[in-house]
Design a protein that fits this description.
35% of the residues lie in helices and 35% in strands. By secondary structure, the protein is of the alpha+beta class. The chain starts with a strand and ends with a helix. The model has no long low-confidence stretch (mean pLDDT 93).
Length: 54
């Protein structure tokens, strides 16, 4: 599950399908921060997206 952080607010958790949907609609930006709780890793949504969906 992924948490999204923007402007010091944390949202989620989201599964990959929900995250893709929010990216497509612009509700989640590629520049937002992402926290993957499966491996306790902080990254950007762009880096997470590139590592999981491309």
């Amino acid at each position: 599950m992924i948490y999204i952080e923007r402007n010091s607010q944390r949202f989620g958790p989201y599964d990959d399908n929900a995250l893709l949907s929010y990216i497509e609609t612009g509700q989640v930006l590629l520049s937002d921060k992402a926290y993957d709780d499966t491996n306790s890793k902080n990254t950007s949504v762009r880096q997470y997206y590139n590592g999981h969906f491309t």
